[in-house]
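Researcher: Predict the fold of Two component, sigma54 specific, transcriptional regulator, Fis family.
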Amino acid sequence: MQLAHLNTNEKLILGKQQSNILIVEDEALFARAVVRRLQKSGYECAHVESLQGARDIVRQFTPDVVLLDMRLPDGNGLDLLSEFVAKGAVVIVMTAHGEISDAVNAMKQGAMDYLKKPIDLEELLLSIQKAENAAKQSKSLDYSRQRNAHASEGVELLGDSPAMQNVKMQITRIAQLVSNDSVPPTVLIGGETGTGKDVAARLLHLSCANNEKPFVQVDCASLPAELMESELFGHEKGAFTGAVGARPGLIEAAEDGTLFLDEIGELPLALQAKLLNVLERRVVRRIGSTKERAVPARFVAATNRNLHEMSQSGRFRQDLYYRLNMMSISMPPLRDRGQDVMLLAQHFAAQTARRYGLNSPHFTREAISAVQSYRWPGNVRELKHQVTRAMLLCHNGELTDADLALPNMRPVESVPLMSLDSHQSALDSAERAILLQVLTETKFNVSEAARKLGITRMTMRYRMDKHQIKA
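Model: C-alpha cells for Two component, sigma54 specific, transcriptional regulator, Fis family follow.
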C-alpha cells in the first residue's frame, strides 16, 4: 500500500489543491508511473493493489476520483465500484483487451468513464479532468435543485375569496397552456406592491411541466443599471474592463425552467429592445460574443406599475408590452379580498408562533375589528410584518389592537382634504395628504421622503403615480 502526499510548499507552487485520487491497480510499475504523473499535476494520490487494500485505505484517505482496474488478485473491480459511487467518488475504470463487457457493466453501475490498456498518461490526465468537471457540474445542479425545492416548500396562495379563486384558476389554466407549447407564451403578473406577485410566479412554475428545472428570479429594480445587461445576457472574456472570464447570464441560467423578471417596469429602454429580441427569436447572445444560444426558458414578468400607460407615454416599449402581456394574471389588493384578511392574519400568527416556540395565537375582538377595518395599503406584505411584530410583542399569544399598532390614517392638518378631488375616498385622500406633506418637508426629494416614511423608493414612486403627484 502506497500513500503519496504533496507537501505544503508544493501545494503553494501549484496554486491550488486538487482532487484526492485512489489508484486500485496490481501492476506496480504502471501504478508508480501514474502516481508520478498525477503528483506532477498537483494531485494527492494513494495506490493499493487489491480490493481489500482499497477497503482498508479509505478509512484514512477519502478519494474524490478512483482509478479502478477490473482484474485484481482478490476479485473483480466491479465488486467495489458501487461502494465508491455510493460514497460520492468519481470512478474511472481501466480495462485490458477483451474486457469491454466489464467496462459496459461498470458504466451501468455508475462509473464516469473507462480507458483501455495500454493507457497513455496524458489521456488518463485528460479523462480525470473531464470527470472532475462533470462531477462539479452535477453537484452544482444538485445544489440548485435542492435550493429550489427548499424555496418551493409551502408555496401557496392562501385565500377563499372570489378574487383569489379566480387567480388560482388562471394559474392552473395558464400552466396547462405553457406546458403544452413548445414555445411557451409569456405571462405578465400585475398588482400593487405586496400582493404576492412573486408567490404567484413561483406557483405558476410549480404547476408547469418540468417544474424541477431552475426557477431564476431577477429583481429589475435592484440590479444596478451598469451591471444589468451583463447579469441578464452574460458576457465573454475581455468583453469589457473587468470581464476576466466568460460568464453565462441569468437568461441562460434558467435553462428550460422559468425566468421571473420582477418589476419589469424598471428595465431600461435600451435593454427592453434586447429582451424583446430574445422573446421573439428565442436566442440570446452574450456581450462580446458572435454566437447565439437557444433560449428554451419560460418567461414570467411582474410589475406594480401601469405598463399600458407607460407604453403610451414612451417610458416602456409598446412592442415589448404587447409581447409580455400575451397572458396576464391580476393580483387583487388585500382590501378587496374580504375574509381572506383574517385568514392570512391567523396564518402568519401561527407561523410565527411555531418558528419561535410561542403560545398559540388568539386575536381579541378588538384586534379582529382592527385587522378587518384597516385598508392595508402595503397589502399581504404589510399584514405579515404587522402580525409577526405583534406576535413577538404580545403576552401569552393574545394579540390586541394595541399590539398590532396599525397606523392612524387620519388626514394631517397642513393639507386640507377639501382641496382634493371629491371622488377620492377618505383613506386615499389621507394617504395623498401625507405624501404631499413629507414631500414638501423634503423639498420633493423622493428618496429622502421614502426614507422618512419607512418605505422603498419604488413604493414611493408607485404611490406618487397613484395619486398623480409629480416630483
